[in-house]
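anyone else get weird line breaks when pasting these?? whatever heres mine. first is seq + tokens for prot A
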Amino acid sequence: MSHSKPLNEVFSYLSWVHAVSGATGSVVAMSVFYPLDTVRSRLQLEEPERRKAKSTWAVLKQLVSEEGFNTLYRGMVPVLQSLCISNFVYFYTFHTLKAIRGAATGGNQSALTDLVLGSLAGVVNVFTTTPCWVVNTRLKMKGLGLRIKDPSSHYDNLLDGLIYVGRTEGTKGLWAGAVPSLLLVINPAIQFMVYEALKRRFVPDTSASFFAIGAIAKAIATVLTYPLQLIQTKLRHGNSDKNLELPPDTDMIQMLLIILKKQGAAGLFRGLEAKLLQTVLTAALMFMTYEKISHFVMKILIRAKK
């Protein structure tokens, strides 16, 4: 294989098509199911006593009743921006690595290969996009009194937030929650492994089939990694969370022990129902949209070459 071959795969049109399709699909899906993400965030960050409602639908109604309909879409713009960047990076990296390996091995793929490539893509994604998620997590909960000191009052959008957090909290603040995020690269890796395995097994060709296997893949990944996702969200929100009375510089292990002490094992799975509902539906719609867009663009490129 020539030295230019890997470079050609890195800058190939196919990687760009997958990246743009994945980013677009994620934005469409999150826009549709964003209120469910709001419920998930509130259940993860608020005191357990604050939300007596047991079901996601009941929490939705409670939020609208107490704070108005607009609260369901609080912080939506920075979340969509971060999600678009994150999925672009992930899809681009995953499919580039897949293409490079395929060129080197003749195209043979396996579940283990997808897991490894998905994990590598996740690591790249974490180092690239964690600051965006730190800022949008804080913007999403802005003005709700969940932090003793709430610096998010000093910024209203993603760019200003990145500048402010970088200036006031430095690298540590921008990459808060990066350690559980690195561990959580296994979540999209498992998701892609299951998704690609199901695609190879059943060869889906309809929107409903892509939706179904996307939902199954995300459900499995979410259940297996949820406690880490909960800790990640709390660390991103900041160690001044007054609900848990966190000591300065709380790390992942300390956060785990504090949650277990104050809320028990059930505290590690608080908001799981809302998270499952939100992520499964969002991922299913995202994969369906991604497949349709990528197939459409591929057909255009094939026709253009003729």
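and prot B, same format (seq, then tokens)
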Amino acid sequence: MPASYFIGLMSGTSLDGVDGVLARLGSDGQLEVLAHDFVPFAATFRSELLALNQSGPDELHRSALVGNAIARHYADVVTALLQQTGLQAAQVSAIGAHGQTVRHRPLEFDADPARHWPAVGYTLQLINPALLAELTGIDVVADFRGRDLAAGGQGAPLVPAFHQGVFGQPGRCVAVLNIGGIANLSVLKADGTVLGWDCGPGNALMDFWCHRHTGQIFDRDGAWAASGQLHPELLFNLASDPFLGKPPPKSTGRDLFNPAWLQHHLSLFEDLKHADVQATLCTLTAYASSQDLLRYAPEASQLVVCGGGALNGELMRQMSAHLPGVPVLNSEALGLPPLQVEAAAFAWLAFKTVRRETSSLPSVTGARGARVLGAIYPR
């Protein structure tokens, strides 16, 4: 079977915009990124996405319109990728479109013991995939999480199987940490076993605090965090959240680590300097991620970091400080730049869906078995 072209599109919990890649995939699933593009979200649109993470007035109507808008943003990225490569839409097998997560509450609701129905809960990614197929003329694969939830899983994280294919090294234990709005860890064991789970907050709380007090949507290179001082009591309070001590499988989102959660903890302290809060939030991300690695994969030979957090120099410095003896690498050192990894994963996931191959890992999500993920919307 000759190589085929797939597009992967990802807008994560950082809410900064859409990353997309156009990749060539061989029949063995080996992936080569040919083009990358990013379309930022306008401030007003980002505010609406943040608002939809909480209950509010007319939210069904607003969510539907946001789904349409996400499809249009995604279509703009597809157009840019095709222009960069000179490919035509007809040459692309499918688009893997994650959508925008605004709620993630797996396994929390709707159990019926009398009928032996376990809790399923829900996860909600806003996108209109039919509109995206209409706008691009390309098959769209969306709703990657739903089938895993139906099988009793967390529906997240989705990327550890992809990480194994890209970063796995036979005979060595390698860890991959994706730091988006939430941080998630993949552990690629020497024997081929793959584990993965959400560790806790990634950039989401740091981005919120930075925007609130500096007007910038993120702390470039962690410079503001580096100017502050760690507040040990605040760190202890934040790190005491039960989620951080919970064993995997586990997944989370802005449903938990959000401004209200942060404000509750800050209310217990007086006269905190804004830069010191930022420094402590940076340490929280590094601490939670590194502690999980040391707890569940102390034999890891290296930690590969991807996502926007890999570009935060202060956060990377702190990760290294918490993991003495474990090399902490930017994923670009292994051939895939950090802002391309998740989008590339959705190109790979779409490839698996089109071939009707399973791409979920019960060892990661806790589901009853591996499943073919995603629903196909024909062009």
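btw re prot B: The chain has two domains: 4-156+340-377, 160-326. The chain is about 40% helix and 20% strand.
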